[in-house]
Amino acid sequence: MKNFFILSTVTVATLSSCDMLTHVAQSIVPSTTEIVSGLKAALTKGATIGSRSLNKPGAFLNNAALKIPMPPEVASVENKLRSIGLGSQVDKCVTALNQGAENAMGKAAPIFVSAIKNMNVSDAMGILKGADNAATNYLMSNTTSSLHTAFKPEIKSSLDKVGATKYWSTIFTTYNKIPFIKKKVETDLGQYVTKKGTTALFGEIAKQEKDIRTNVSSRTSDILKKVFNYADAQKTSYLK
């Protein structure tokens, strides 16, 4: 009888321990649904902060790292224009390039939201196990074309206000026909600014993503904490 009591006690304790371990595991290891939800939350946070930070006056123009200059292919032409007293016109054009990009950033959020909604389990697992910019690369692959389409009207409007589009196309279509010119200039100024703006936008999103992955305090919701804490643990285990 005594042995039976001991055996029963051990059995109950063992079962209780198993239940406890199961509960702990469930609280630490995210489900597939939670992983997808967490990655969508991370993408939404990064994309929102990234696009908003650039969608304001001076975000490009007053930031030396992001400011969009005249294309390097036309540096000699720009210098010539400045040398003959047309520097203010060049400055107006450069200002228009950057204001166009700043205004265009306001179109990014709904495009990102659509791409994030379409994320599947395979996408999420790839991002979770990927590099610090895996989520940014996902957005880049799924939104670049749509962003370009949405950005162009805003950028064109800004450039048209100072006549930049018209003069640019006329001058550099002729310039590109010169036989000894090795590197042609993009005659579509709006396309040039669109590409620059899009590159800057993904750069900002990449910063936000890396911050969430490497800075625990940036995981501002329970789902972000659970998913990325788990990702941290997996990486640590792998390195061992």
Q: What are the salient characteristics of this protein?
A:
10 helices, 240 residues
Task: Explain this structure.
This protein is mostly helical and 240 residues long. It has one domain (36-235). Helix content is 74%, strand content 0%. The protein contains 10 helices and no strands. Helix 4 crosses helix 9. The protein is elongated and about 70 Å long. 31% of the residues are buried.
Quick summary:
With 240 residues, the chain is mostly helical. It contains 10 helices and no strands.
Strand content: under 5%
State the secondary-structure class: mainly alpha
Whole-number average pLDDT? 80
The span between the termini is 48 Å
**Tally of alpha and pi helices:** 10
Task: Give the SSE map.
Elements: H1 2-28, H2 32-54, H3 75-83, H4 87-104, H5 108-117, H6 121-128, H7 134-160, H8 164-175, H9 189-214, H10 222-239
Helix pairs in contact: 2-5, 2-6, 2-9, 2-10, 4-7, 4-9, 5-7, 7-9
